[in-house]
Amino acid sequence: MLIGGIEAGGTKMVCAVGDENGVIQDRVSFPTRQPEETFADMVAYYKGKDIKALGIGCFGPVDLDRKSKTYGYITKTPKAGWSNCNIVGAFEEALGVPVGFDTDVNGAVLGEVTWGAAKGLDSAIYITIGTGVGVGVYVNGGLLHGLVHPEGGHILLMKHPKDTYEGKCPFHKTCMEGLAAGPSIEARWGKKAAELADRAEVWELEAYYIAQAITDYILTYSPQKIILWGGVMHQEKLFGMVRKEVQRLLNGYVAHEMITERIDEYIVPPALGEDPGIKGAIKLGLDALG
Ligand code: ADP
Ligand code: ZN
Question: What are the tens digits of pLDDT across the range 52-67?
């Protein structure tokens, strides 16, 4: 059986076809332009591929409330032309198959819970630190939705006393994204993040912020696994630094051995490499079959 999976991003739309085991058989990518022309390319890709369902992990904010009139819409986004866009409706109508829908990061955590580093667990979170920060939350065996959906990338952080950077988030300045996403690192230090690889102070500060956010997620969601990825985590030394800093910040308060002794297995990169998002989208499609 073939299932379609879409990772809908602000710069590109990754479209794939996979099977019920999450094995990807084909994939393409289209640049994100205006909805109509972008969707036309994507629909043409799926036509004739005999997919039984489609899953979409989408950039946000999105409406996930099935009782809402705008369920399946991208809601109010700064991305020109995309506010109030009925993405689920567009594909349901054009392809005539069930469409599963969630945020891109909820899709990614679902991929890792189904086939990756959190396989078989009841709870996990997926944090991506790249151009922005996104956090997908899986708890009690399901993806977390609420009033809208969690926006863990924008939790407010305590600034480091020596950090003079004002913060980049247009809404909150010094939230997680405003202090720790790639563009914030680059604005603070005046260089591309990859070119700062040898500057210890850059990554010490970065680990301080990432660990603060993770500490808060541990205290609120109590995840059994934390998967950490995104362009910034290409600085792989951050993993060890973040683990240590999380232990320091928790200070023994959450006295579980996963934190006190086995933190190397607790805060990890994805097991699905670059594919948690697209595989998770395929799982969203599978789940839409009911
Ligand atoms: P996106 O978030 O747009 O999907 P990425 O997750 O690839 O994309 O993140 C891109 C960001 O990651 C860039 O803004 C850059 O600051 C940062 N980045 C990319 N490569 C590296 C690297 N080798 N080291 C540190 N940061 C990096
Ligand atoms: Zn913010």
Answer: 999 999 999 999 999 9
Residue 258 sits in which domain range? 117-268
Residue with CA closest to ligand 1 atom 19: 231
Helix ranges, the chain (H):
35-46, 87-95, 104-115, 176-180, 182-189, 200-221, 237-250, 257-260, 263-266, 276-288
Mean pLDDT, rounded, for 256-266: 98
| 29 alpha carbon – ligand 1 mean position (Å) | 19
- What average pLDDT does range 167-178 have in this prediction? 97
Q: Which of 205, 210, 232 to mutate to test the pocket of ligand 1 (most atoms within 8 A of CB)?
A: 232
Ligand 1 within 6 A of 64 CB? no
> Which of 10, 193, 6, 176 has its CA nearest to residue 88?
6
Do 121 and 252 sit in the same domain of this protein?
yes
Q: Is the pTM of this model over 0.85?
A: yes
